Predict the 3D structure of the following.
Amino acid sequence: MAKNRVALAFGSNLGDREGNISEALDYLREGGFEISSVSQSMESAPVDCTPDSGIFLNGACIGFWNDSPEELLDFCQKIELIMGRKEEREINSPRPIDLDILLFEDEEINSSFLKVPHPRMLERDFVMLPLDEVAPEWIIPGKDKSVREIAEDFK
């Protein structure tokens, strides 16, 4: 099966944020996600989160995945649960780890449970700046602009 190039965003605003991110990256590797590069992490204020939310530590990574986008989503959600994210929770409540699929090759996916490119990524500096660090040349499907061109708006 072909290896698909994938961009993921990660964030943590609960507990040992750096440790949580490191642990999540380890889980990704152990589960077959071949990480090729990881951005530096950056702090960001919570966006559209519950009032008790702390400051996030965010970043992005590029890697390769042999299975479908849906299987990757399922895998990321399992990691979130293993690491303590509650299944029943208020939307955008504090969490040890949040993993989002930003880009999957040059695919555009619009299902009821998965949207790629991530629908809000272009509006968020804490996504675009780390992504620019690891994949500036990647053309955003449906936008005909590179990550770098979009990230420039946040610099």
In short: The beta strands are 4-12, 34-38, 42-44, 56-65, 98-104, 109-110, 115-116, 139-140, 145-146. The two ends are 39 Å apart (CA to CA). The chain has four helices and nine strands. The longest helix spans residues 17-30.
